[in-house]
Amino acid sequence: MDFKNTDALQKFISGMAKIKPGKKTGTCSSHQRKISEAIKRARYLGLFA
């Protein structure tokens, strides 16, 4: 998952801008880690409005 692809990352973020747990999104733990790292990186760079 690329941190620049904010459209794809939006479905892993709740309405309160929190990362959804893997049980709700249906991802395994290794992919969930990669997704959360990408979301945190995108937040740091200010890609989410």
UniProtKB/TrEMBL annotation:
User: What's the protein name?
Assistant: 30S ribosomal protein S18
Q: Which domain of life is it from?
A: Bacteria
Gene name tied to this protein: rpsR
User: Which biological process terms from the Gene Ontology are attached to this UniProt entry?
Assistant: translation
Q: Which family does it belong to?
A: Belongs to the bacterial ribosomal protein bS18 family.
Task: One GO cellular component term, please give it.
Answer: ribosome
Q: Which UniProt keywords apply?
A: Ribonucleoprotein, Ribosomal protein
Q: Name one GO molecular function term.
A: structural constituent of ribosome
Q: What parts of the sequence cross the membrane?
A: none
Q: Among its keywords, does the record have Magnesium?
A: no
